Amino acid sequence: MQRPQLHQFESIGAYLSAMSEYRRLQDSGFSVAKASKGQYRCSPALVSLVLAGKRPLTLDRLNSFCHIFGLNVQERLQLKLLLEDGIKPVAPATESTNKTSGRRRRVSSSILKDWLNPYVKDAIRLESVRRSGLRGLFAELAHVATERRIEKAVKFLRHHGYIKVNEGGQLVESEPLAVVPDAQFDAHVRKFHANALKIAQLGLLHAGADERLAQAMILPLDAKRYVELVGLIKRFSEELQNFTEHHADADKRLYQLILHLTPTGGFNFNNQSQNKKESTK
Q1: Closest by alpha carbon to 118, among 171, 162, 78?
Q2: What's the chain look like in SS3?
Q3: Residue 131 contacts residue 92 (beta carbons within 8 Å)
Q4: How confident is the model at residue 225 (pLDDT cuts 50, 70, 90)?
Q5: What percent of the chain is predicted at pLDDT more than 90?
Q6: N or C: fewer beta carbons within 10 Å in the chain?
Q7: Least confident of 70-84, 172-186, 233-247, 251-265
Q8: What pLDDT shows up at residue 243?
Q9: Using N-to-C axis directions, what is the helix angle for 12-26 and 73-85, rounded to 10°?
Q10: Is the CB of residue 111 less than 8 Å from the CB of residue 117?
């Protein structure tokens, strides 16, 4: 089942019902009742009424519904625009830039059960790791995790087929590239992003200016411009993925690139923070 798109449905309830089914297929442990726990004024009964078209989804409950159904940033904004201005998204145009060479395998967020897994998987490609094995892997990721954590990640990646041991006894990737979809807003993805930001902070403190590039922009946006900017970032991300595919043989050093667009505050931001505090009491 492909991820539901809002433009494909006649009503918000039908869209969210399809998203609920999609989430159950992706995660057998998902349920609306479980996902609704701790959500502000958003009971499973209310969710059922909205899905059945018997109650409208209102803006004050939008964030809770987005959390329950794991909507990504663009999906959240599309739904918000539909509720505010009646603007429904249209089917995206097919572009040649969306075509891949067929080498890219899309995987679920299960690889992020430990946020370290992608770092270990990509570090396997480095020349120093091919030459020195685990010793080289430990050295490359010394500032990222302990040797015990790295060994655990290697075991996980081998068990699930992301990496393997070749005839020469070297750890190698099973496939050139694995891409985690940005579609799932779950705890694994958030933890991965949080730790990626911590590593970026280390880079700012310890890496020379000729080894890193850091930029931060502060800009005011409205909902429509936000969607436009997210589309621009998604196109750029696609180009980056193509770049990675076409230069998969690069093996000297491991870098991470982070793109984060986040609010600096505001009503919804502060409201969510307050809800989290109340739910932990």
Answers
A1: 162
A2: CCCCCHHHCCCHHHHHHHHHHHHHHHCCCCCHHHHHCCCCCCCHHHHHHHHCCCCCCCHHHHHHHHHHCCCCHHHHHHHHHHHHHCCCCCCCCCCHHHCCCCCEEECCHHHHHCCCHHHHHHHCCCHHHHHHCHHHHHHHCCCCCCHHHHHHHHHHHHHCCCEEECCCCCEEECCCEEECCCCCCCHHHHHHHHHHHHHHHHHHHHCCCCCCCCCCCCCCCCHHHHHHHHHHHHHHHHHHHHHHHHCCCCCCCCCCCCCCCCCCCCHHHHHHHHHHHHHCC
A3: no
A4: confident
A5: 33
A6: C
A7: 172-186
A8: 86
A9: 160
A10: yes
pLDDT band at 186; cut points 50, 70, 90: low
Q: Tokens 């933890």 identify what position?
A: 191
Q: Which two tokens stand for residue 277?
A: 């505090």
